[in-house]
Amino acid sequence: MAMISRALGYATLLGTMSVHATNYYVDSGLGADTNPGSETTPWKTLAVVNSAKLLPGDTVFFKRGGVWAETLTPPASGADGTPIIFDAYGSGDLPTITGKINGNCIFWSVPRSHLIFRNLHLRDCGQPDGNNVGGINVYSSAGISSNILIENSIIEGSQTWNIYMNGMSNLIIRNNVIRGAELQHGIYLSGGFGISGAIIEGNDIYNNKAMCVQLNSNGKNRLTGVVMRYNLLHDCQLGGINNIGAAAANIYYNIIYGVMPGIYNS
């Protein structure tokens, strides 16, 4: 992953983290859903994770090298200082989620807050024919989701867009590879239900069918507090950044090449 050297220099939007309450483990090869989810007796499927009674501070670890053809739907929210974390354990390739047929890899529509997703590989989400489906799809129509961090992951080959956020505050997307969306954008922030406070930094975003990054009010709500910095944006077919609704966006210290236009403001 080719990133721009930088000093982050900002306060986390997730609060000061404390000791995790409980660690759960998921192994697609040797796990069983009847297990208690410990490291020696892990769960097997995302279905059991989706129905688990997770509490603030809990961490769900996915076995490196494992593959899940399912959709991850976080069943609960964390809290300030005690987020719920989805992460990797073991050695080898990142744990891979491909989504069920025509389905998202990660999806929720009810408000969720204080969640961290890191060290995951979301691949071919929504394939082969999923319309308006992708890698991480948040359509928070029942209320605003908040304090979400997506980092150190690979999100690629999604049917529509790799990341879609609608109804979100205090969002960080950092240090990811986001590439090869089949129909639309690498990242799409929609103002349909509002977007406020979003940091997109340190990502390598490229080879997406439409824009590398789409900021769009959709005639509803202007996006506010959007910061884009230290990203590589390149070789997306329709351009680098399309801003049609972000008010006073701060876009700086990005490298944009191999696209036309580099930045479009409407």
Report the β-strand fraction as a percent range. Answer: 35-45%
Structural class: mainly beta
Instruction: List low-confidence stretches.
Output: 5-11
Look at the structure and give the mean pLDDT. Answer: 93
> Alpha-carbon distance between the termini?
31 Å
What best-fitting shape do the alpha-carbon axes yield? globular
How many beta-strand runs? 23
Q: How many helical elements?
A: 1
Q: Which percent bin holds the helix content?
A: under 10%
3D architecture notes:
There is one protein chain. With about 270 residues, the chain is mainly β. The protein contains one helix and 23 strands. The strands form two sheets. It has a 15-stranded parallel beta sheet that branches. An eight-stranded parallel beta sheet has the order 3-5-8-11-13-15-18-22, with no helix packed on it. Helix 1 (about 45-50) links the parallel strand 1 and strand 2 (about 60-65). The two termini are about 30 Å apart.
